[in-house]
Amino acid sequence: MNIVLFHSTFGLRPAVRAAADRLRAAGHEVWTPDLFEGRTFETVEEGMAFNDGIGKDELLKRAVLAAAPYSERGLVYAGFSLGASIAQTLALGDAKARGLLLLHGTSDIAPNAAVDELPVQLHVAEPDPFETDDWLSAWYLQMGRAGADVEVYRYAGAGHLYTDPDLPDYDEEAAEATWRVALGFLESL
């Protein structure tokens, strides 16, 4: 499978590279675009401030340009938190998308979004301050109306970015469970 994996608001950190290596070890071809052009951050607030300075339109432009050389192959779009929201936006706009793997995040869905049974898998903490229960319920229904085939996995007690071993949110048990399920999902595509 060809996968483009987008980083979180912390930037292209070692955990993203390690995730890409894990996916490669499972036989996938993976690209990890650096939407922050080498900048990484120690706190969510620093990353969000930088992200706000770039602007959503510029970030999406960078993501589209990064994915474009590979999109003809039929990509699985994947991402962590902010990167998941970017992956979702790109996948819903790419008729050749093969799947969408969301780790720790979702995004708004355009009212006219339509896909043909796009396989989508979401892994998110429970509770998650950035992905509230009400938001996730509405998101799930909207994705279904858009035509996506959605699976949601919740991890009780885990922190928001629980798959990143270098962050306080890290939860080894939840992270390993996520990777087991996600790798199975990718194999099924």
Automatic annotation (TrEMBL):
Coiled coil: none
GO molecular function, one term: hydrolase activity
InterPro entries: AB_hydrolase_fold (IPR029058), Dienelactn_hydro (IPR002925), Dienelactone_hydrolase-like (IPR051049)
Dienelactone hydrolase domain ranges (all copies): 3-187
Keywords: Hydrolase
Pfam families: DLH (PF01738)
Top-level taxon in the UniProt lineage: Bacteria
Matching PANTHER family: ALPHA_BETA-HYDROLASES SUPERFAMILY PROTEIN (PTHR46623:SF6), CARBOXYMETHYLENEBUTENOLIDASE-RELATED (PTHR46623)
Protein name (record): Dienelactone hydrolase family protein
Annotated organism of origin: Streptomyces plumbiresistens
